[in-house]
Amino acid sequence: MQIGIDKINFYTPHLYVDMNKLAIARNQEPEKFTIGIGQDEMAVAPITQDPVTLAANAAWNMLDEADKEQIDFVIFGTESGIDHSKSGAVYVHHLLGLKKEARAIEVKQACYGGTAAIQLAKGHIALNPTSKVLVLASDIARYGLNTPGEVTQGAGAVAILISADPRILVLEDEVSYRTDEIMDFWRPVYSDTAYVDGKYSNEQYISFFSHVWTAHKEKTGFDLNDFEALCYHLPYTKMGLKALRTIYDDKTEADKERLVENYQISTRYNRKVGNIYTASLYLSLLSLLEQQENLRDGSRIGLFSYGSGAVGEFFTGILQPNYRKYLHTAEHTTMFEKRQEVSIAEYEEIFKQELPKDGSTLDLNIEEDPAPICVAGIKDHMRQYVNKQKV
């Protein structure tokens, strides 16, 4: 039985900041952000959006009634959870109107959570071939204003429907993975922002990629000429290129040119959105599928997932016949076109807005947010979610 991605969609907030302008405001050369880091724009989440609403918005227009009837497992990968106890999946399950005969859980391991969710979903489908699993990867990356990590912030979510006989990408069975207890990036429960050792994290990212890439080659016998493209977890878009360069010796010149071209195309969406942690790899994959017109059915795509702390994994997928029919390229183009640029001052003001930490009552104006699903406020220590389009 073949299992993999039957549908995939993403959502990012309607606000963004221009990285050239942010660089100037921070007394930096713009090229440091746009070339050195590889970011053009950064999504800004208004107070009416959180990881739950981002995930629900990503899935809302992707699912039809038949999908909703078959989904019996919702897995939410995030490192921006809103509750120590209740999973974000339960909220999304309700907001989407899914059937009650379903499981709903949240998984966490830094940016690896979405990949962990996909592997759990594969196992579920193997035992329940007529079921479908909704995988959600959703995060808001926050490091603080005027911090070294500010340039690698972002917000967004990717929703993925995993099923048997998928129409977009069959996930192959052989995978390689690695775990090691390191402190390259972490966020204690008492902190709203993350701590990161940037240089060490970059080194570990490349080290993990080297280990899992080598292990996968030994398991499968595959080499670079077996891959049409490699997609990477992208905390910033230059990071994946650094890892790709470490295996240039394995390539012919034609391999190198193909993989670099496809890598650059895979970063187009990420360059506009920024870092979205668990969803970054899958936004990269989606960018490749929707923006590279020369991808052929049957092509093998390699995917490298990395979650600081740390877990890394390399796995592969095969593009299915007529996969383009099941993408939402036009909708994503329109979403980007409709976004609104905010000034640096407006971005800083939005960044400082927070929901009350004491659970006090707050009503938010959701009419200014064009998203179908929003946070409407706080009441009795409970976030109030609204789906404007749900009957």
UniProtKB/TrEMBL annotation:
**Active-site feature positions:** E79 (proton donor/acceptor), C111 (acyl-thioester intermediate), H233 (proton donor/acceptor)
Its family remark reads: Belongs to the thiolase-like superfamily. HMG-CoA synthase family.
- On the tree of life, the source organism's domain of life is Bacteria
Q: Which GO terms describe its biological process?
A: acetyl-CoA metabolic process
Q: Does the keyword Transferase apply?
A: yes
The Hydroxymethylglutaryl-coenzyme A synthase N-terminal domain is annotated at 2-165
Q: According to the UniProt entry, what is the EC number of this protein? A: 2.3.3.10
Alphabetic keyword roster: Acyltransferase, Transferase
- Indicate which residues the UniProt annotation says bind (3S)-3-hydroxy-3-methylglutaryl-CoA: Y143, K242, N275
Q: What class of enzyme is it?
A: transferase
> Tell me, what is one Gene Ontology molecular-function annotation carried by this entry?
hydroxymethylglutaryl-CoA synthase activity
Q: What is this protein called?
A: Hydroxymethylglutaryl-CoA synthase
Q: Which PANTHER family match?
A: 3-HYDROXY-3-METHYLGLUTARYL COENZYME A SYNTHASE, HYDROXYMETHYLGLUTARYL-COA SYNTHASE
Organism this protein belongs to: Cerasibacillus terrae
Database matches in Pfam families? HMG_CoA_synt_C, HMG_CoA_synt_N
In this chain the Hydroxymethylglutaryl-coenzyme A synthase C-terminal domain maps to 256-353
Q: What is the lineage of its organism?
A: Bacteria, Bacillati, Bacillota, Bacilli, Bacillales
